[in-house]
Design brief:
Elements (H helix, E strand, L loop, with lengths): L17 E4 L1 H11 L1 H22 L11 E18 L12 E20 L5 E13 L8 E13 L6 H4 L1 H65 L4 H36 L2 H6 L3 E4 L12 H11 L1 H22 L4 E14 L2 H6 L7 E10 L5 H68 L5 H36 L2 H4 L3 E4 L2 E3 L1
Parallel strand pairs: 1-6
Antiparallel strand pairs: 2-3, 3-4, 4-5, 5-7, 7-8, 9-10
């Protein structure tokens, strides 16, 4: 039996379960579930810990800004061999008469200190030390209790002086946090752009599928007509064979269209659903929105000005430039020599009882006072000079990057603007082509109904009409994608869809 004698399938496509979804719903699902957004949201939170660390002053090997408490306890037991003279020399006996005995000494020492650095560079250390000593020796105070209370202040006079240089790490950490927040917004924009683009791809695939279904039905009707004509003897068997071939071809097109619809649905769902839910999700998305028309007037110069105002890439580069300027100022400051003024006041106490060691700590009785001026200067300063040169070059490089970013933005806006205009013109041409193809198809059907055309000719003209309608749909989708590209190029995508980012973990539409 020849292939064309087989009957067409009862069902052109398998039964499917669909999920109607609007563009707004798709965006909201992406903001809630998208993995890329969730991953990027961690970066601001991670860098926020770096800000706290910088505020604590826990880097650079310097005394921290947060008060630092230190405590230590030490116990020592010594048994030192000591020669003990029995006094033979005093009796006029030559030589020495005695023995070696252990000299036992036990000491206990406890110390407590508090130190802190201020933004001016000033540091203080307040320390208290208490000691206990007991020995076998008969001379001196035994046992003895000692205590001391001291305060040390250190102030840099050149390198390290002033709030700016002491808060460099804080400023850099805060700018890095701001950069991560901007990067998070850029990631949200990228994901939303992908979602919108995939949604319109889905719309195009779905509408193309509907066209293929109509084309399949037309071919099916022509087959029935051809079979009827063959039965009554007004058409040859070749006409039926031609109709069957046309139906089979359109059935294959329908299957391909169905596959494209499913693929487009999966590509969109991958952006919207959590991984586990996406793995088990079996429904196919049926888009409920159609591409609409935007009536606002687009002025190229105005769009470029808005892009310079809203594009986050410029803000990101500006924050990077701020950090480079801070590092340059820091490296320039580090060319200064180190000159530190320090002073220490210590109050001492000693007694045979514990209370005596406290009682003798008096400012006017037992005290020490010390003032020091320390100067340090590397003679060649090769490390400092190379660090300064590096910071200067990196700052100049970042300034050029800003200019490069602006140039790229100009180019992107212009291209998006031109693509929008050309897409609109192409769409009007495609509408005209569809209209003429429809008129041609209607005429061919009329000729076929009166016997002046063949099944093959009708199918050929109908295929031309389907192709024209497919290109019209593609042109319409190109317009909405051109608007999308323009919104991204001008930095107005979030505003366009009413999306507000209040923090790295809070998104609201």
């Amino acid at each position: 039996m020849p292939l064309w004698s087989k009957e067409p399938p009862k069902k052109a496509l398998p039964a499917t379960s669909t999920w109607k979804l609007s563009l707004k719903q798709a965006i909201l699902l992406a903001l809630k579930n998208n993995l890329d957004i969730q991953i990027e949201a961690y970066n601001p939170r991670i860098l926020n810990t770096e800000v706290d660390r910088a505020l604590a002053g826990a880097s650079g090997g310097l005394v921290p800004f947060d008060p630092l408490l230190k405590a230590s306890f030490q116990f020592t037991s010594l048994r030192t061999p000591t020669f003990v003279d029995t006094g033979a020399q005093f009796l006029g006996i030559p030589g020495s008469i005695g023995e070696v005995k252990p000299d036992k000494t036990k000491t206990i020492q406890f110390s407590l200190s508090l130190e802190q650095r201020f933004s001016t560079g000033t540091t203080y250390t307040l320390s208290y030390t208490h000691g206990y000593r007991k020995t076998d020796r008969v001379f001196g105070l035994n046992p003895s209790y000692s205590s001391s209370l001291s305060l040390t202040l250190t102030q840099p006079l050149l390198k390290g002086l002033g709030p700016f240089i002491n808060t460099v790490e804080i400023k850099i950490a805060q700018n890095s946090l701001s950069q991560s927040q901007v990067s998070f917004r850029l990631k949200v924009i990228q994901v939303i752009q992908d979602v919108i683009s995939k949604y319109w791809d889905l719309v195009q695939a779905y509408q193309n599928l509907k066209l293929k279904e109509k084309s399949y039905q037309v071919a099916k009707e022509l087959l029935e007509i051809a079979k009827l004509k063959l039965k009554i003897g007004t058409a040859p068997s070749l006409e039926v064979a031609s109709a069957r071939a046309g139906l089979a071809s359109r059935h294959a097109d329908l299957i391909n269209g169905y596959s494209q619809w499913k693929n487009s649905s999966d590509q969109l769902l991958a952006l919207l659903l959590p991984p586990e839910e996406f793995r088990t999700f079996r429904e196919i998305v049926e888009p409920s929105d159609l591409p609409g028309d935007r009536k606002e007037k687009i002025v190229l110069d105005q769009e470029i000005l808005e892009a310079l105002k809203y594009r986050l890439e410029i803000q990101l580069n500006q924050l990077e430039l701020q950090n480079k300027k801070i590092l340059l100022a820091q490296s320039e400051h580090n060319l200064l020599p180190s000159l530190n003024l320090s002073g220490t006041v210590t109050l001492n106490g000693l007694g045979g009882e514990l209370d005596d060691s406290y009682r003798f700590i008096r400012p006017k009785k037992f005290h020490d006072f010390q003032v020091a001026l320390n100067f340090t200067y590397p003679l060649f300063q090769r490390a400092e000079k190379s660090a300064y040169e590096k910071a200067l070059l990196e700052k100049e490089q970042t300034m050029l990057k800003i200019l490069s970013t602006k140039r790229d933005i100009f180019l992107q806006v212009r291209q998006a603007y031109r693509n929008l205009l050309s897409s609109k013109e192409a769409y009007l041409a495609r509408v005209e082509a569809s209209r003429f193809a429809k008129e041609k198809l209607d005429g061919e059907r009329t000729r076929y109904s009166v016997g002046k055309s063949t099944n093959h000719q009708v199918l050929q003209v109908e295929e031309e009409y389907t192709q024209a309608r497919t290109q019209e749909i593609e042109a319409k989708i190109s317009i909405v994608k051109a608007y999308l590209a323009l919104d991204v190029a001008t930095g107005k995508l979030l505003h366009r869809y009413g999306i507000e980012i209040r923090s790295q973990r809070t998104l609201r539409e």
